[in-house]
Design goal:
This protein is of the alpha+beta class. 49% of the residues lie in helices and 16% in strands. It folds into 2 domains: 20-57; 59-128, no CATH class. The protein has helices at 38-47, 59-88, 96-107, 112-122, and strands at residues 21-27, 30-36, 52-57. α3 packs across α4 (112-122). The longest helix is centred in the middle third of the chain and has 30 residues, at 59-88.
Length: 128
């Protein structure tokens, strides 16, 4: 079984909503910039007094980044489960998932080490 920190190292950061906001800057009919970040739009606004700005949110991109982050976290959680099942020799046991569910419910708020401790106590109920 790997170190508990391994299972918590999601490499994809949680997406920040402000980083998915974009701006279009214009003066009358003249377009000065499209799809700009806040900093880029502010700079154009300073350089062009009287410029107007419209903002919009890149919802699809934000949701895709959020889903990718969650998928990576879920994959690490599933790897933790597989590894703990292997360590205790219950990979094919029909009640192993139930034991894990109870261990998770009891311990995950304190960290994976606590889930491991709970599992190690509860698994004795299903071992011969």
């Amino acid at each position: 079984m790997k170190d508990f920190e391994y299972y918590q190292k999601v490499t994809l950061p949680w997406p920040s909503k402000p980083s998915y906001k974009r701006y279009n800057v214009f003066i009358g009919p003249q377009v000065l910039g499209v799809g700009l970040t806040k900093q880029e739009a502010d700079k154009l606004g300073e350089e062009n007094p009287g410029a107007d700005c419209i903002s919009y949110f890149l919802e699809e991109e934000y949701n895709a980044a959020r889903k990718a982050h969650n998928a990576e976290a879920k994959a690490l959680e599933q790897e933790f489960e597989r590894d703990i099942f292997d360590e205790f020799g219950v990979t094919d046991h029909p009640k192993a998932a139930k034991v894990m569910s109870l261990a998770w419910e009891r311990g995950h708020s304190e960290g994976l080490h606590r889930v491991y401790e709970e599992f190690s106590e509860l698994v004795e109920l299903i071992l011969p």
